[in-house]
Structures are given as structure tokens and as C-alpha cells.
Amino acid sequence: MGGDRQAAIEVIGLSKRFGERVAVEDLTFEIGQGEVFGLLGPNGAGKTTTVRMLATLLRPTAGRARVAGVEVTPENGARVRERVSVMPETPGLYARLSVEENLRLFACLYGRGSREADRRIGEVLDEVRMAERRRDLVSTLSKGLRQRVALARALLPGAPVLFLDEPTQGLDPAATHEVRELIAGLRTHGTTILLTTHRLEEAERLCDRVAFLRSRLIAAGRPDELRRRLFTPSIDVELAGPVQEPDKLFGRVDGITGWVGDRDRYQVSVTDPRRVAPLLADALVSAHAGIVHLAESEHSLEDVYLELVREEEPG
Ligand SMILES: Nc1ncnc2c1ncn2[C@@H]1O[C@H](COP(=O)(O)OP(=O)(O)OP(=O)(O)O)[C@@H](O)[C@H]1O
After folding, report:
1. Which is it for strands 62-67 and 70-71: parallel, antiparallel or unpaired?
2. For a substitution probing ligand 1, which of 15, 20, 21, 215 has the most ligand atoms within 8 Å of its CB?
3. Residue 191 forms beta bridges with which residues?
4. How far is residue 16 from each of residues 54, 119, 217, 261, measured CA to CA in Å?
5. Which of 32, 184, 246, 287 fits a 20 to 30 Å CA distance from 134?
6. ipTM
7. How far apart are alpha carbons 117 and 220 in whole angstroms?
8. pLDDT value, residue 267
9. Smallest Cα–Cα separation from 198: which of 27, 47, 59?
């Protein structure tokens, strides 16, 4: 992490066991202020357990953490909870109350006076674009709209650190898109967000940095950094017809270190894609190979994840 930003969350050697089962093991990471950080991993990886420990809802077996400058200990529970807000996996709203009544109830729990509460409720409803639905009963709302109300609820206290546990779980593509837009918008307030998800494209779109969790931390970094760390740079080539002597063709281009593929499709490993791509294009043109496509290979976060899991497998 860049040393110029103070950490909003620091986690050192955090572990949680439930009896014999190790849910989280020796977790260490930092999240900078205003950063959107994605905790990624398959079902049972320990994501929710981590969030619950950081929000003082669950006591770690070992290790320590500091959230918004406060050491996470049982004695500091109230101080930590003043500084964090959790949007849990299930919205936790009262179905028979209206949107506004739900928010008023939670605002009272946060100890806001009624005028102050009304002002804040108006703000968060605007923020999640639900002002016009404020009098609707929660039971009449779609899952996507309920999730927006859950987000409004999490925003009510105006906490500097927000934990979003699987925020788009079970939503259809349109609702997913809307909730993601809202989360992306929170960035402008400088809120630090720890988001758990097993949807890699979600993390890719929303997060500055991600950590892959499988009880232990497998890797952490910016998605592009992780890609670079795991994959040799390469160029994808698609041609109009087969190449006669690929060894000869690729072999004479400076900066090409290897290739896979055959006939009209190749993935060419290179030292530096920006330098080598024009040289490769020249060589192909000289060999009268019609170029259909020539571009640096893209590795999605999913590729990164699969590569990491492959590296982890024994043998
Ligand atoms: N209260 C509990 N008692 C016993 N085991 C638990 C408890 N909470 C979680 N676990 C176990 O700890 C492990 C991690 O669970 P956790 O819910 O943190 O994973 P997750 O990454 O959030 O998964 P999901 O994506 O399914 O929500 C799992 O094996 C789970 O069964």
C-alpha cells in the first residue's frame, strides 16, 4: 500500500476457529482510507467471518485488528461500532413497515433525534434513489429495491468504514448493475469500503485492490498488478489464413520469448507488448499473413483466480 495514506483497516495474523474447523487463518492485510477493497473467495472461504470479526460481532481466536484507528477488542466494541457500518448478506428489514419507517427505526437505534433523523433519512434515500418509494411497504419491494434500502440503512450512521457482505447476492443483472452503480458512487464520499464477493467481475469493476481468501490469504493487490505477477505478457494473434512456418516467422522477431497455438491463432509470449507488437505486425505483413486481430492478451480476474488456485493445488 502507498505509504502516504493512513490505513483505515489493519489486520495482523487474524484467525478464527470454530471448534476443530479453521474458518480464517493468519490473515494480514491493510486497507487505506477511502479505498474500496474486495475480499474474494469461494463459499466457506471465511469472508463473512472476517467481516464479523472486524465489526466486533465475533471474537477472533488469535491476531489483532484496528479499524478507523480503534483496536478491535471486546472493551472497544462500542467505539468500533460507532465507526463501522455493516450491510449484511440478508437485508434485515421489517417487511411490514414502509421504507421510511424502517429507516426511522434504525436511525433511532443509532440515537439520532427525530428532526436530525428525518434529514439524514432524506439524504440516504436520495443517495440510493429511493425517495419516491419511501412510503412503500418493504414487503412490496423487489429484491433489488430491498437491497437498496439495506444500503440506505448501512449509510444512515455516516460511518467512515463500510462493510458490504455479498451486496449483489441473488440479484438479477439489472438490479446488480444498479446496486454496483450506487456502491461506485460512494467512492466520492471517501468512505472506506470492504466488500466481500465471490463474483470476480464485481470486484474487478468496483475495487481498487482485492485479496483472495481460502481461509488463508492467497494473494492481494491491484487486479492489474496480480495479472502482471501471474502471467507472462503476451500478444493474441488471429490471422486470415494459416502461417506456413511459424517458427521462422516468430523466431526472427526480437522480444518474442515463445508461442503457443497453430494455423491461424497464436498466443505469443513477449518481453514488452508495446515494443514488440509493432515488430510482430511488420513480420506478419512481410510474410503476407492477413492480420485479423493483434492485441495484448487480456487476463480477467477470473483467470488470476484460477491460476492462483492451480498454484495452490498440491503437485
Ligand atoms: N458460527 C459458526 N459456527 C461454526 N462454523 C462456522 C460458523 N460461522 C462460519 N463457520 C464456518 O467457517 C467457515 C467460513 O465461513 P464464512 O461464512 O466466513 O465463509 P464465506 O466466505 O463468507 O462463505 P459464503 O460465501 O458461503 O458466505 C465455513 O466452513 C463455515 O461453515
Report:
1. antiparallel
2. 21
3. none
4. 12, 40, 13, 46
5. 184
6. 0.96
7. 39
8. 93
9. 47
